[in-house]
Predict the 3D structure of the following.
Amino acid sequence: MGFALHEAKTLAEATMLARDLGPDAMFIAGGTDLIIQINRRVNTPRDVIDLSRIAGLSGISHAGGVFRIGALTKHKTVETYPAFGFGTPYAGLREAARVVGGHQIRNQGTVGGNLANASPAADLIPPLLALDAELDLVGPSGTRTLPLNAFFLGPRRSVRAHDEIITEVRFRDLPPLSAIAFLKAGRRKAMEISIISVAARLTLEADGRCRDARIALGAAAPTPIRAREAEALLEGGVPDEGVVAMSARAALTSVSPIDDVRASSEYRRLLVAALVPRALKICIDRIKSARS
Ligand SMILES: Cc1cc2nc3c(=O)[nH]c(=O)nc-3n(C[C@H](O)[C@H](O)[C@H](O)COP(=O)(O)OP(=O)(O)OC[C@H]3O[C@@H](n4cnc5c(N)ncnc54)[C@H](O)[C@@H]3O)c2cc1C
């Protein structure tokens, strides 16, 4: 691993270093993706800029109806954050964070690294897409804000310039009668990246009709995606069994899964068809039990 390590103390220092060192420099946060990629020579940076000592980029806060998750926040912090606990509308975030690798990975890997790595199978991305999250990118010439769904371009490719740092991802409070659920299929129960993952989010009206639906899928296409046709079928009607089944079939029109050593494309499609209705049903049950 022949690279020079630079420890940045401030965001400005890190972005200027990245600008001056050029595209052969890469940031590192927890290192759980990057070090493996360097070992496998998937990435061969000449310089690595450590972000982990920059103050103010870690932790979750809630104020003014907005949740903010700093880029250096560990998966373990998301997993254990009380407002994302079971019995809250945000339990789907905990469900995603708690299946990222094992305890060591969750204590080391960061939310910002999960997003910046831009893997189609990254577990935090589908629930954040389902929450309409946006993120901040800070570069040498300033800050820009993007909806998360405009960030990804392809496997490990995003709109982030090499000298831009993700500083936080945030989303607004869900309206009443809302819930989010996350389901992941992997080859084993732990320490395995997703073969398919599904995050569903529903907001219902008092009369049971669906006001808002989100279905986000991981490992189902070159980037994490929203199944927009499936969402549209749910909105405006009562999400009974028939509508949920129709929505799951519609979700299949959004996917283009790969064949690889983990699973065939056909198996991945079967998983989408099975997990979408299950995730929607969990949302409906959660909303009902929060009401009663
Ligand atoms: C054994 C094992 C199991 C795993 N299991 C899972 C799993 O189940 N689910 C899952 O989703 N992932 C899994 N991962 C992948 C990894 O742990 C996560 O993606 C993690 O969130 C990466 O965060 P990190 O801080 O370690 O990123 P790093 O490795 O430090 O960085 C990853 C990439 O993001 C860039 N980067 C990091 N932070 C920033 C930032 N703030 N701004 C801009 N660029 C940045 C780096 O330059 C690099 O390109 C696993 C990894 C291992 C080794």
Notes: The mean pLDDT is 96. The chain has three domains: 4-50, 60-172, 178-291. The radius of gyration is 19 Å.
